[in-house]
Design goal:
The complex is a heterodimer.
Chain A: E1 2-9, H1 18-28, E2 36-42, E3 49-55, H2 59-62, H3 66-74, E4 79-83, E5 86-92, H4 96-106, E6 111-116, E7 119-125, H5 128-134, E8 144-150, E9 172-179, H6 182-191, H7 201-214, H8 219-229, E10 232-239, E11 243-248, E12 257-260, E13 264-268, E14 284-286, E15 294-297
Antiparallel strand pairs in A: 1-8, 1-13, 2-7, 2-8, 3-5, 3-6, 4-5, 9-10, 10-11, 11-15, 12-13, 12-14
Chain B: E1 2-5, H1 6-9, H2 11-19, E2 29-33, E3 50-54, E4 69-72, E5 88-91, E6 107-110, E7 123-129, E8 143-148, E9 164-167, E10 178-181, H3 185-197, E11 210-214
Parallel strand pairs in B: 1-2, 2-3, 3-4, 4-5, 5-6, 6-7, 7-8, 8-9
Antiparallel strand pairs in B: 9-11, 10-11
The chains are: A alpha+beta, B alpha/beta.
Keywords (chain A): Glutamine amidotransferase, Transferase
Domain Glutamine amidotransferase type-2 (chain A): 2-298
Protein name (chain A): Glutamine amidotransferase family protein
Chain lengths: 298, 229
């Protein structure tokens, strides 16, 4: 069992409240996943700049002077905003690849959580309310976001085993369920050049979607291909720079409820997660159909 | 009327109060406000009382119900009226997965749609759905009646024993060993009664339904297959 929440805002007036709304939804889903929690927030892009969210088990050592060291290595301005065990680096878009290789040699224990123009990912082991508090998620703003509460089944309870998983620029995926063919698929994806941080089944699904997108499929097409290639139980919610998608396996025993108003599209593993959203009383509330891809894009 | 604010008083207090009702009671009318999708609301009631829930509920609302009439003024989450024994449960909105699963008696009415596995392993319950139902509904149903005014999803009545399935709209596909059967007088009578009690008699007439049931090929031992074991 796991809990998923997601919000895709249509009304820009709600953007300053995205973090606050998502935090409340996430904490409501604690019963479904008390092991660890995570959130992906799309907070927009500044012209020409990209973001890398990094994580360290020893942040006081690894983050100390890191912006200066990167500046020196790249010869370009780098800003760093530290949030507990995570930090968001902002730097010129064309320096992202160089920054990643510089990071690997400057601070080998650092893990990259996400890379992109807009995405930031924060995830840790612990109760959702504690995870949300340590990263101050309720103060975050953005256009859309996805949260996950994990009750581990397929791999260890670790920071890297928490969701969301990001395996491509501005992409992320969260999962409720379990995949049965992830080992075989992981081997195929490694042959195609993908790298993996964990033994987790969800990371394989995320990498699968990234691979399909790289091959030129749209997100909708990638999720449709997944219906044939991913075996197991799943409700997936995926995020891209401008979009938000949902798909359930053909048996659809993992729960999913959606609500849509003029202001937002919301996803919850249970209706409980949606009850305090503005205007929920008059929202269109429905369950996504099995083996059907839903996608919203701005 | 006993009014109960779930947001203030909590689920355990509600269900304890309802479970304390036995046999004759003066407290026959109950109202639950602020349900906010909570789980197990009014589960395990065993008294002839009338309960109205003002809002949508989470998992297992009215589960194991005996004697009570429970009305949800909203939608219901997974497993509504699961293993109901008797009484009536009415959902004004939609119901999620496995509504009325394993139900042994009573009447479950869903005014909207029900999703997958509606009436799975039903054992005597009557279910009336005003809208449509999802895939694998009435899987391994053993007895009782499932009445659907709309359409049915894939694999209706898979591995069915003896439950009767009445569908007014389209059936996407029938499950293993489920076949269409003729409508006889007794079936029109069952439908007339259930449509009336299910508050659906103004919406549909018995002659608009088709009946589906078990072909009885799957659950009887067939001597011709002996060599296969």
């Amino acid at each position: 069992m796991c809990g998923i929440v997601g919000l895709f805002l249509k009304d820009p007036k709600l953007e300053p409240k995205l973090g606050e709304m998502l935090t409340e939804m996430l904490v409501t889903m604690t019963d479904r996943g008390p092991d660890s929690a995570g959130i992906a927030i799309y907070s927009g892009a500044r012209d020409g700049l990209g973001k890398i969210t990094i994580q360290s088990p020893q942040p006081e050592v690894d983050f100390d002077g890191l912006d200066g060291a990167l500046h020196e290595a790249l010869g370009q301005p780098v800003t760093m905003l530290v949030k507990s065990t995570h930090a968001v680096l902002e730097l010129p878009e064309d320096q992202i690849a160089a920054a990643r290789s510089a990071l690997a040699s400057l601070r080998p224990s650092i893990k990259v959580m996400s890379v992109g123009d807009s995405i930031e990912i924060f995830k840790e082991v612990g109760l959702p309310k504690d995870v949300a508090a340590r990263f101050d998620v309720s103060k975050m703003h953005g256009t859309h976001g996805i949260g996950h509460t994990r009750m581990a089944t397929e791999s260890a309870v670790t920071t890297m085993g928490a969701h969301p998983f990001s395996t491509g620029s501005d992409q992320c995926l969260v999962h409720n369920g379990s995949l049965s063919n992830h080992n075989g698929l992981r081997r195929e994806l490694i042959r195609l050049g993908k790298t993996f941080e964990t033994q987790n089944d969800t990371e394989v699904a995320a990498a699968y979607v990234s691979q399909k997108l790289e091959e030129g499929q749209s997100l909708g097409e990638a999720l449709t291909s997944g219906l044939d290639d991913l075996d197991g139980f799943y409700t997936f919610v995926v995020g891209t720079k401008n979009g938000f998608g949902v798909v359930r396996d053909p048996i659809a025993c993992k729960p999913a409820v959606m609500a849509e108003t003029d202001q937002y599209v919301a996803f919850g593993s249970e209706y409980r997660a949606l009850v305090n959203l503005p205007g929920i009383e008059d929202a269109r509330v429905w369950e996504p159909e099995p083996a059907t891809v839903y996608f919203w894009e701005r | 009327m006993q009014s109960f604010d779930l947001g203030k008083e909590g689920l355990r207090a509600l269900n304890s109060a309802l479970h304390a009702l036995k046999g004759q009671t003066n407290m026959t009318k109950w109202e639950v406000v602020n349900p906010k999708g909570a789980h197990a609301i009014a589960a395990g009631v065993d008294a002839e009382v009338d309960i109205t829930v003002r809002g949508s509920t989470g998992y297992y609302c009215a589960g194991m119900n005996k004697l009570a009439t429970i009305r949800v003024k909203g939608s219901a989450g997974p497993g509504v009226a699961e293993n109901m024994m008797s009484g009536t449960v009415i959902i004004d909105g939609n119901a999620s997965q496995y509504a009325g699963a394993t139900g042994r008696g009573g009447l479950l009415v869903i005014k909207g749609d029900a999703s997958s596995r509606c009436g799975v392993s039903m054992k005597g319950i009557n279910i009336v759905v005003h809208g449509s139902i999802g895939h694998m509904s009435a899987f391994m149903g053993q007895s009782g009646n499932l009445v659907v005014l709309g359409d049915a999803g894939e694999a209706l009545g898979d591995s069915l024993y003896e439950a009767r399935l009445f569908v007014r709209g389209k059936v996407k596909s029938l499950g293993a060993d489920c076949i269409e059967k003729e409508m006889r007088d007794e079936h029109y009578q069952i439908l007339e009664d259930l449509l009336r009690r299910g508050e659906a008699d103004a919406k549909a007439k018995p002659e608009e339904f088709r009946r589906y049931g078990s072909a009885r090929q799957l659950y009887n031992f067939n001597i011709d297959n002996a060599s296969a074991y």
